[in-house]
Amino acid sequence: MIKRNSMQSLLIAVFVLNGIGEAMAEYKRVCYYTNRAQHRPNSFKYFPENIDPFICTHIIYSFGKVSGLMIKPYERNDESTSWSKGMFERTMAAKKTNPDLKILIAIGGWTHGSSPFTAVVDNENDIDTFARHSIDFLRKHNFDGLDLDLEYPRKRRGPPEDKHRFTKFVNILRMKFENEAQSTGRERLLLTAAVASGKGTIDSAYEISKIAADLDFINLMAYDLRGSWEKKTGRNSPLYPRNDETGDERTLNQDMAAKYLIAQGTPNEKLILGIGICSSGMKTAWNDEHQVLYAYSRDQRVGYDNVQSVKIKAKYIKEKGLGGAMFWALDLNDFKGDACNEDVYPLISAVKNELTTKDSPTPIRGVRPQHTTVSPKKSPRPTTTTSRKTRTVKCGMNGKMPCKHGAFYTDTCDKNVFYRCVWGRPVKKHCGRGLVWNPRGFCDYA
Predict the structure, then answer these.
(1) CA Rg value for the chain
(2) Which of 1, 67, 375, 380 has the fewest CB atoms within 10 Å, counting from its CB?
(3) Per-residue pLDDT reduced to its tens digit, 162-215
(4) Where is the signal peptide (predicted)?
């Protein structure tokens, strides 16, 4: 016989488990944001204020750099001064609107090279020092974690030892992040990595099963698989191979890259499939084997994604039980909504909509699905009409059109709904479960 107190404890545990299952089951939408986008021509400049706080679950600020045994900003205006807000602080403002948003900073990138990393991982004492300095840097600027975008360990003049040293680097960083969280009571800093998708680079640069154990998730750079370094054209981000491809060519697609990382020891739910965002103004055609588009003009060929192809990739993520989608980059999608004759962020939005549909398989492992009983729909009550006139309330944005860019608006009917104006056009958003939109500019408890 179960005692009353035991029964209460059991019920509490069930509710907690259900809550954890729901939280973990959300597919991640990881969006890199490049600080260099501020230097583009006027109509294409991108600033932190252009960020939609709800379109991504994680934003990775790109990039910081490794300088000696410390992380340093790349841009002069990354850090705040006594006379101006820096890009770091301006980016963090998105979390005031969406407190669930996680913002990390990436160190590295292609132009950064591997030499600074090689110097850090030369010995464990230097790694320890770098880890301590990294925690100080991340906390100072309110980042939620660190993304390692080192392209690539052991490659580009890196010594062979860097493959194992990178594993040790990841392990020590994770251990230091765990210790700091326990000693301070703060939420642990996240640790992630951007990993190459080419089999040769994966084999030479990473000990996948070991780093996957310490990383919170892996961002698979499953794009730029073909390019100008080759003697023939190919799609930069095909989902599957063509039937006529042979040898190494058959590995240059997202499906093979994902399967290979999983086979090497990456848990499905930790693998985030990368989607490169590009566009084209040329004539287009669909490749049914690759499941992507390509554009052509005379002797020019460009492979790219559109709404149709990214939806297919989102379905693939669900079918394979992966952890979500990664986008390179937030500032490369049509953030104004005036270039593709579609909504703002059309490709990221398409993936978000597909991954958040109610019938989506869950990426979580080990949580038993909850069985629910669906009550039969009740027939609507009969209504009677009278001669009395009734006032019809039109639901929608509570404001005038065109709306003011950057402003937020309430919904005339639904307190959970709000609108953000993007260049004169309202974009409908929803607060999280149990929250309502506060006209002061944030989601609040009801």
Answers:
(1) 24
(2) 1
(3) 999 999 999 999 999 999 999 999 999 999 999 998 898 999 999 999 999 999
(4) 1-25
